[in-house]
Fold:
Amino acid sequence: MRGKKAKKRKLKPDLKYKSAVVTKFINYIMQDGKKNVAREVMYEALEKMGKDAKMKPIDALDKSLQNIMPKVEVRSRRVGGSNYQVPSPVRDDRQLTLALRWIIKAAKDNRGNSSFADSIARELVAAIKREGNAYKKREDVEKMAEANRAFAHFQW
Structure:
């Protein structure tokens, strides 16, 4: 490893909801540096999700993210010439990163003829109800960790 470890930058809260999570979500949606387009998509998705879930948009976002964030995942460890899938707890910042990544991927996959904002809103509402592709991905990750619980003693 060369040099110093990069410092973690603090994100400024977004202007409308005063939330750093929304800013991070906007940054994940952004493509080719077009942040205003990403902002419009995110705010539209939050408004639609708030109407569908009959909650405040920021509360609905928090609830859906809590349902998607994985608590455990498997990591490969090489022990004695063979690889094991070792279950390990997920750090808080990685939980959020994975949840946002899975929501965006699920929204892109199930887009159809609707706008991207509609697709994100649908995926977030589905997450509140504990369904949808992003929630299914979390379930799959946690099932894999549960199935490999026998190798937990290889964790270090």
In short: The mean pLDDT is 91. The first helix runs from residue 20 to 29.
